[in-house]
Amino acid sequence: MSGFIWEDETRHAVLEGHATLERTAESLARSQRTAVETERIAEEVVSELGAQRETLLHSKRRLTDTDHELSQTRVLLRKMTLHVLTNKIILIFIIVLEICILAGVCYIKFSH
């Protein structure tokens, strides 16, 4: 009978060890699935970050180009403003000169 108890205890221990081994294997399988899923998600994130980086670099280049074009536009607007002011001064000078000539003609015509 003592041999039977020993065999029963051994069998119970082996069954517990086997159950523990199965739980460990299942846990490892879940961990491996989680690791694979995490790796897939990480690859997607890296891919998306790469695309965002390219978008940001493209935007930066466009902003640099826009800044350069704005600088050229400012220079052009300053030149145009200077030309407009110069034309206004010339026009005012011509108007004043015409008024003086008209006044001189009127003076000469009505004084004789």
Automatic annotation (TrEMBL):
Domain of life of the native organism: Eukaryota
Protein name, per record: Vesicle transport through interaction with t-SNAREs-like protein 1B
Compartments, as annotated in UniProt: Membrane
Sequence similarity: Belongs to the VTI1 family.
Major subcellular location class: membrane
GO CC aspect terms: cytosol; endoplasmic reticulum membrane; ER to Golgi transport vesicle membrane; Golgi apparatus; late endosome membrane; SNARE complex
Segments passing through the bilayer: 89-110
An example molecular function term from Gene Ontology annotations: SNARE binding
Alphabetical GO biological process terms: Golgi to vacuole transport; intra-Golgi vesicle-mediated transport; macroautophagy; protein transport; regulation of protein localization to plasma membrane; retrograde transport, endosome to Golgi; vesicle fusion with Golgi apparatus
